[in-house]
Design goal:
The chain is built from four helices and four strands. The longest helix is centred in the N-terminal third of the chain and has 24 residues. The protein is elongated, with a radius of gyration of 17 Å.
């Protein structure tokens, strides 16, 4: 029984470290709802956010999220729930125009 508790504590500690590391790499999370874009975690410079919002409105993105993470000196763009491939590509293009230093704000 004690070994099981020790194992559970170890697994919880490892999970906490992994989650903390992921949060440190995350620059921003933007949620899309009915053509509107809202930053729900982190921050984006106003210029970048304005362009992301422009894509959301023009493409009428009904829902989804985009997560921007630092990855080996570049930015990884993860899209979830953005079903229109044109909208997804436009978001990647907008974000890809900015260097990591610019996205950090």
């Amino acid at each position: 029984m004690i070994e099981l508790i020790g194992m559970l504590v170890l697994v919880a500690a490892i999970a906490a470290v992994v989650i903390a590391a992921d949060r440190r790499r995350t620059l921003a999370v933007v949620r899309f709802e009915r053509g509107k874009a809202t930053v729900v975690r982190g921050k984006l410079p106003p210029r970048v956010l304005a362009e992301v919002r422009d894509v959301a409105e023009r493409m009428r993105i009904p829902g989804g999220m985009v997560t921007l993470r630092r990855e080996s000196g570049t930015v990884d763009v993860e899209l979830r729930g953005v079903d229109d491939p044109r909208a997804a590509q436009q978001l990647r293009n907008v974000i890809g125009r900015f260097r990591l230093a610019e996205l950090r704000g």
